[in-house]
Design a protein that fits this description.
The complex is a heterodimer of chains A (354) and B (531).
Chain A lengths: L2 H6 L8 H33 L4 H6 L5 H10 L6 H13 L13 H36 L4 H15 L2 H15 L24 H7 L3 H38 L2 H8 L4 H29 L3 H6 L5 H10 L3 H29 L5
Chain B lengths: L1 H16 L12 E6 L15 H10 L4 E4 L2 E7 L2 E7 L4 E6 L13 H14 L5 H4 L8 H4 E5 L2 E5 L6 H7 L10 H5 L9 H4 L9 E7 L3 E6 L12 E6 L3 H10 L4 E2 L4 H7 L5 E16 L9 H10 L2 H6 L6 E3 L21 H10 L6 E8 L4 H13 L3 E8 L1 H9 L5 E6 L6 H8 L15 H4 L5 H12 L3 H17 L3 E14 L2 E2 L2 E2 L6 E2 L4 E2 L1
Parallel strand pairs in B: 1-10, 1-11, 14-15, 14-16
Antiparallel strand pairs in B: 2-3, 4-5, 5-7, 6-7, 8-9, 9-10, 11-17, 12-16, 12-17, 13-17, 18-21, 19-20
Helix pairs in contact in B: 11-13, 18-19
The chains are: A mainly alpha (354), B alpha+beta (531).
Chain lengths: 354, 531
């Protein structure tokens, strides 16, 4: 999204802190605006060149020509594409994302319902990826060429290359159908639906805040399997990258110097080598998290998880453009937000960037 | 802050104890089914034309006329108690049942019934044609459909139609009776409550709509005061599970009572399970191929006739279609009044070759079959491709999503289409009007809802017979005319009609009373009970 360079460029503002901050903020705002205009324009054009008829998505294939024309005009499809796009931007400027054709609800309401489901899933999956993937990657690098390294590499390769759809179904068969350790597809058992008021949309949080621990337990039981499947993917990628970054650092001369000075191996690995890997790792984790937040359509489909990925895909197939554009903007915001967060974290972990 | 600490402690505790599975069985008073409900786009009976909402509104609204789950063959009054035909079959006067109430508690009045029909005509959404074909439009409908007193209303048609057909059409979703007071209290900018009714209900049926979360769940709540008595289940839940394998797992674990979208393989897989029963329901959906009559080769009757002889119907029905489709070769689905059950075609390559020779294409030709991406259409297309090759016809297959395929079909841009069709209401005219009646074949006529027009095919004798049957007052004669029309289209015209759907539903054995009729909107939940 180009924000990293925009904001990291501010180190040049030596001594004049306020103007530098101002320039930086203006830079971010301009970059944000351009990003969103580009994002919406590309999505809009793609939607118009797709051979899918948005009118038929509403009226069905049996509609008479009269009904068809009526809806065609209602949607403003008779206007040139740039007019349609400008109208949409105008609407957007007023904070109106429009109404979805497929759900008959304002897109903003849909997003507020579907996005927290994805956020919950992606966050748990990424945490799993970090807490297992990073130590595994470090462990593999330290034991390069020996069996712990081989195990991590094989697991990472499997996790990265196994089709997530297949993995999901197999996991459901084993852990839900055969062992009964976890709950099945869906976010919650149907009889718990509607009991907890959706304050944040994140079920675990809402249930805990409402003191509904049965529902919390049920939601967690539903979450654990899809999060683990998605986490496997995150874990595999993070472990591979951590291993690779660590191998690079461990071959540096300063590591050799540290070892010669007699610093304990644990300190050499974690305080010296790992600290230098952190900046790159933050980028990797940020990108992984952002890609999971886009929604993992296949995982969401197998686990009947009502997330943003399914929402955007279904809308795209039906040319429900308000929904697609709304979803795209959310994904864009995620990327930009995570990029900015990564920037902040760089400054925390790397004194050279401050 | 306390709550956040509790949240963290709770999470840790649960993680340490292990999460465990979900509750094993569904509640005794709740019927839970897994279904792909992504097709729902509105709950307004004036607009509903999708499979899932078709069945939902059948349970939420009473219609003027109805087919009840106890006897799906006989048309009876819904809110109508009796009716009288007058004015040479052009006016029908209905008396509605006394004491009926909407879910809101408002009484069901003749005014509500007349207004419901007027509303459909004025909104003029896709299914409105079912009643606007009677000559009703936004300007004249108030005068032609009117309440006479609290319990009486009349409808007058301006076109020549059999009263039997009118009564059948008044059993369609567009004839759902809507609570005028409630809907109008939610009207915005003169929209007749259109925006509000998209996601709410205002009926007097066995269930009311409690929640609809798109792509997630629909919950219906029982109407204890329903005219047939309180429904067996207090709650009906349609849970969106798009993936058939997930539906199967949920059913086997007892987390749902019924799976609605299992594939033939999965049906086979659960057949050995002692707790699960499989029911088959013949549906009105027809699978057919149609040739574009504007095509220089496919426009020839003998070529299409040869294709009818080349297709190996039985082999497909007995292999990959595995009970989900049965051979049917007429445009009106089997099991319904007026259906032609004859299946005159089996694969006969020699006859087909002879016909192709006579048509001047003995050396074969090449063309494209356009079909849908979802099963069983690609499988059927592949089998047909192999069948046609035996006659020297080289068929290329193009699969497309419906939203991409229909615009092509409606623009007559296909060679051969392999698709499905289901009746809009339970009268043979519904399909005859689509398959056999094309009053204006000019491209600019744009009769895009008519299959015959889409295939650029019009035939004088077929048109005449379709209109004659539509207008016939005598029921026996009418039935004979439809049989004749179906037989005619088995021999000429652009269609190769192949199969009729048999919906396979897998259910928990303890659940009984689910009824799925021939049409997409004849599905009833009110007699469901659980042991």
């Amino acid at each position: 999204m180009g924000l990293t360079s925009a904001s990291s460029g501010q180190t040049a503002g030596s001594g004049l802190a306020p103007p530098s901050v101002l320039v930086s903020i203006i830079g971010v705002m301009v970059s944000l605006t351009l990003t969103f205009i580009g994002l919406t324009a590309i999505t809009f054009v793609i939607s118009r060149v797709m051979p899918v008829d948005p009118v038929l998505a509403i009226v069905g294939d049996r509609a008479s020509d009269e009904v068809y024309q009526q809806v065609y005009l209602q949607l403003g499809l008779d206007k040139p594409i740039y007019i349609q796009y400008l109208r949409y931007l105008g609407q957007l400027a007023e904070g109106d994302l429009g109404t979805s054709i497929m759900t008959a609800q304002p897109v903003i309401d849909d997003i507020l319902r579907f996005f927290p489901a994805t956020l919950e899933l992606a966050t748990v999956a990424t945490l799993l990826g970090i807490f297992v993937g990073v130590p595994a990657g470090v462990f593999a690098a330290v034991h390069q060429g020996r069996w712990p390294d081989h195990i991590v590499r094989v697991v990472a390769l499997l996790g990265y290359s196994a089709p997530i759809f297949w993995l999901g179904l197999v996991a459901l068969l084993i852990f839900y159908a055969n062992l009964g350790w976890v709950a099945g597809p869906g976010r919650l058992d149907v009889f718990y639906d509607g009991i907890v008021e959706p304050k944040s949309g994140i079920l675990l949080l809402d249930a805990a805040l409402a003191d509904e621990w049965d529902i919390f337990h049920n939601a967690l039981s539903h979450l654990i399997l899809p999060a683990s499947i998605l986490g496997t993917f995150a874990l595999a990628y993070i472990a591979r990258m951590t291993r690779s970054f660590m191998l690079d650092q461990l071959s540096q001369e300063y590591i050799l110097t540290a070892r010669v000075k007699g610093i304990p191996e644990r300190q050499v690995i974690w305080r010296h080598a790992f600290r230098n890997v952190l900046v790159q790792l933050i980028t990797i984790i940020g990108l992984t998290y952002a890609s999971l937040l886009e929604g993992s359509v296949l995982t969401e489909t197998v686990f009947s998880w009502p997330g943003i990925g399914q929402y955007i895909t279904h809308s795209l197939f039906n040319n429900d453009m308000n929904a697609v554009l709304g979803g795209t903007i959310v994904v864009g915001v995620c990327f930009v937000g995570i990029n900015m967060l990564s920037d902040l974290l760089y400054r925390l972990v790397d004194p050279r960037v401050r | 802050m306390n709550k956040i600490i509790k949240f963290l402690i709770g999470m840790t505790a649960v993680a340490m104890l292990g999460v465990g599975g979900s509750q094993a069985a569904t509640p005794k008073n709740t019927f839970v089914m897994a279904k792909d409900i992504a097709d729902i786009i509105t709950m307004d009976p004036a607009e509903v034309f999708e499979l899932t909402t078709g069945e939902i509104i059948a349970n939420v609204y009473d219609r003027i006329m109805m087919f009840e789950p106890e006897d799906l063959q006989t048309l009876v009054g819904g809110v109508a108690e009796s009716w009288e035909v007058s004015n040479q079959g052009k006016t029908i006067t209905f008396k509605i049942r006394s004491g009926l109430k909407f879910h809101s508690g408002n009484p069901v009045r003749a005014e509500d019934v007349a207004w419901s029909l007027q509303r459909v005509v004025k909104l003029n959404k896709t299914p409105a044609f079912i009643i606007t074909q009677f000559g009703w439009n936004a300007d004249n409908v108030d005068g032609l459909v009117k309440s006479l007193d609290d319990r009486t209303f009349s409808v007058t048609i301006t076109e020549e139609f059999s009263p039997g057909l009118v009564l059948n059409a008044l059993s369609a979703g567009v004839a759902s009776v809507v609570d005028k007071k409630l809907v109008m209290s939610n009207e915005k900018d003169g929209d007749l409550g259109y925006e509000w009714l998209k996601s709410n209900s205002a009926g007097s049926g066995a269930y009311s709509l409690k929640t609809w979360k798109a792509n997630e769940i629909v919950t219906l709540e029982a109407n204890a005061g329903y005219r047939h008595g309180a429904p067996g289940m207090q709650r009906v839940i349609l849970r969106h599970v798009a993936e058939p394998s997930s539906q199967r797992l949920l059913l086997e674990k007892g987390d749902i009572d019924m799976a609605r979208n299992l594939t033939p393989d999965q049906v086979k897989g659960v057949q050995g399970n002692a707790d699960i029963a499989i029911d088959g329901y013949p549906k009105g959906t027809i699978v057919y191929m149609a040739a574009n009559a504007g095509h220089p080769i496919l426009g020839k009757d003998k070529v299409v006739q040869a294709m009818r002889h080349l297709v190996d119907y039985e082999s497909m029905a007995n292999s990959f279609l595995a009970g989900q489709f049965v051979v049917h070769q007429a445009f009106w689905p089997g099991g319904l009044w007026g259906a032609l059950e004859d299946t005159p075609y089996t694969q006969d390559v020699e006859t087909a070759k002879k016909l192709l020779q006579e048509a001047g294409h003995g050396d074969g030709f090449e063309m494209t079959i356009h079909t849908l991406t979802n099963s069983p259409f690609p499988e059927i297309a592949q089998a047909v491709q192999a069948n046609l090759a035996k006659g020297g016809i080289k068929a290329n297959i193009v699969t497309l999503e419906g939203k991409t395929l229909w615009p092509k079909y409606r623009a007559r841009e296909h060679d051969i289409i392999l698709a499905r069709w289901s009746p809009d209401y339970v009268d043979p005219h519904s399909n005859a009007d689509a398959f056999a009646h094309n009053p204006d074949n000019r491209p600019e006529a744009k009769l895009t809802g008519v299959l015959a027009w889409r295939n650029a095919w019009a035939d004088e004798s077929s048109n005449m017979l379709a209109v004659k049957a539509r207008n016939e007052l005598d029921l026996a004669k009418r039935e004979k005319q439809y049989l004749e029309l179906q037989a005619m289209l088995q021999k000429k015209g652009p269609y190769v009609i192949m199969f009729q759907q048999n919906e396979q539903v897998a259910r928990n054995k303890g659940l009984k009373g689910f009824v799925s009729g021939s049409n997409f909107d004849l599905v009833f939940y009110r007699n469901v009970t659980k042991q």
